[in-house]
């Protein structure tokens, strides 16, 4: 596979296959052709190898992965998650614009932000602060009888639980057993519709788990 720093469709073969993004397909040799094979990033699907029309090539061919893309966590390092071309996929061209350095910086800054957030939580846990607390939400519908609550995770807004027909619904952060670098340390705990007291009981249990979680992270191994 070849990598080119800027979009130049003269470097790509002319094709009459359909465009992988918009579906356009030339019907005669007089129609505008498509181009491929091109390896490009699709935010929801990851790296794809296929054919693009001129318009979609201008939008997608130089697009680079971003940490907020749906496919980023799972497919960032893949060569291709889907190959949809009649040509030899090994001849696919990847266009890598000069913005690659900017995107690399974005990835690094996001990782640094995650590390800083985790460092703050470690420090608060060492001070004995509770991981999960509830705060009455300021938002309330006109005819709503019960208060909604914001879920705070070490003092930061994390989510909310809202009153439904017969009880409260929402999610709570539970410790994740295996956390890769740059990932959030929680997984979503779904309790279902139940009373506020049931949520408070679950929060008490989760706070014990978070206390152990951060104690394990800060404990210095004794090799003696």
From the structure above, extract its key features:
6-stranded mixed β-sheet, alpha/beta, elongated, 27% helix, 11 strands, 5-stranded antiparallel β-sheet, disordered C terminus, 224 residues, single chain, 4 helices, 2 domains
Walk me through this protein's architecture:
Residues 220-224 have low confidence and may be disordered. Helix content is 27%, strand content 26%. With 224 residues, it is α/β, with parallel strands linked by helices. Strand 8 and strand 9 (156-163) form a beta hairpin. The N and C termini lie far apart (53 Å). The strands form two sheets. Strands 1, 2, 3, 4, 5 and 6 form a six-stranded mixed β-sheet that branches. It has two domains: 2-98, no CATH class; 111-218, no CATH class.
